[in-house]
Design brief:
By secondary structure, this protein is of the alpha+beta class. Helix content is 23%, strand content 40%. The strands form 2 sheets. A 4-stranded antiparallel β-sheet has the order 1-2-7-6, covered by helices on one side. A 3-stranded antiparallel β-sheet has the order 3-5-4, with helices on one face. Helix 1 runs parallel beside helix 2. The two termini are 22 Å apart.
């Protein structure tokens, strides 16, 4: 499991740390962790509906934030919970564009395919509703092992 939930988060928040050897792995692990807050067992989701996802941001950390926010928006607007399939992050990594203020680097892009289904309370054990990703303590860092993200969700 490439993520964990710290004990010190409050009842109004859900925090997690996610990691991976690549940007793609840490992005996927981050959404898996957020999805694990929404439903008890994300593996119960069936790939009935597919959605392409394309996002561009100037900074990698903001790309991750927007990626997570997009999944939350789809959950709220369409009632869909999606798992991430193919995912590719381009730009930023080779430039070290992890979130420096005033970084003039070219945009970072994410392209992914997500698949899932509407929430079905008879099959999905509902967890805690996530309203948004907060900027408080939000980080995405390159490490000696790959990448690590720290995320605080407003619930």
């Amino acid at each position: 499991m490439p993520y964990r939930y710290p004990e010190e988060s409050s009842h109004a928040d859900a925090a997690f740390e996610a990691w991976g050897e690549s940007l793609e792995e840490v992005f996927r692990s981050s959404w898996d962790a957020a999805l694990g807050v929404l439903i008890d067992d994300p593996d119960t989701l069936e790939p009935r509906i597919r959605r392409p996802i394309e996002i561009a941001e100037r900074r990698l950390d903001m790309l991750l934030l927007e990626f997570l926010q997009t999944q939350i928006y789809i959950k709220d607007a369409e009632g869909l919970l999606l798992r991430i399939g193919d995912l590719k992050v381009e730009g930023g990594a080779e430039m070290g564009n992890t979130g420096s203020e005033g970084d003039p680097a070219a945009p970072c892009r994410l392209r992914a395919t997500a698949a899932g289904e509407p929430v079905d309370r008879s099959r999905h054990a509902i967890g805690t509703d996530v309203k948004a990703v907060t900027l408080h303590g939000f980080t995405l860092k390159r490490t000696s092992d790959g990448w690590r993200a720290s995320v605080l969700l407003d619930v």
